[in-house]
């Protein structure tokens, strides 16, 4: 089960992830030319854009998740309902094959 965060904890984590997200975006835009050259080398360098996307996605996702928690917006929880067991089996329709003549 996931640990419930208080709004204060979520606000602190939101600030950390937000600052990290802003730093990543600023670094990518500031060093766009060298990053593009490095990604274009091929070989093992071809995996770096994918790794960068995963990093940005993780950091930005952490920011967004904590933002919603800090604002008090949470997912709707489903209530479990107890269904009565059926004592009589339900009648299933019969399968019929017909020819169009």
Q: Indicate the low-confidence ranges by residue numbers.
A: none
Helix and strand content put the structural class at mainly alpha
Q: Give the quaternary arrangement of the chains.
A: single chain
User: Based on DSSP secondary structure assignment, what is the total number of beta strands?
Assistant: 0
Which geometry do the CA atoms define?
flat
Q: Classify the beta-strand content into a percent band.
A: under 5%
* Number of helical regions: 3
* Intertermini distance: 61 Å
SSE ordering: HHH
Largest sheet geometry: none
Rg (C-alpha, Å): 26 Å
Average of the residue pLDDT scores: 89
How would you describe what is shown here?
The structure is a single chain. The chain is mainly alpha-helical. The protein has a domain at 7-71. It is built from three helices and no strands. The longest helix is centred in the N-terminal third of the chain and has 24 residues, at 7-30. The protein is flat, with a radius of gyration of 26 Å. The model has no long low-confidence stretch (mean pLDDT 89).
Summarize the structure.
By secondary structure, the protein is an all-alpha fold.
What is the topological layout?
Layout: H1 7-30, H2 32-39, H3 48-71
Helix pairs in contact: 1-3
Key phrases:
single chain; 101 residues; mainly alpha; 55% helix
């Amino acid at each position: 089960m996931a640990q419930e965060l208080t709004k204060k904890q979520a606000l602190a984590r939101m600030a950390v992830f937000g600052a990290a997200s802003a730093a990543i975006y600023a670094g990518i835009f500031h060093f766009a030319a060298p990053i593009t050259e490095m990604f274009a080398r091929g070989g093992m360098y071809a995996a770096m854009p994918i790794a960068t996307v995963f990093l940005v996605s993780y950091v930005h996702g952490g920011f967004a998740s904590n933002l919603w928690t800090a604002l008090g917006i949470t997912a709707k929880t489903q209530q479990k309902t107890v269904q009565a067991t059926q004592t009589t089996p339900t009648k299933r329709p019969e399968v019929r094959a017909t020819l169009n003549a």
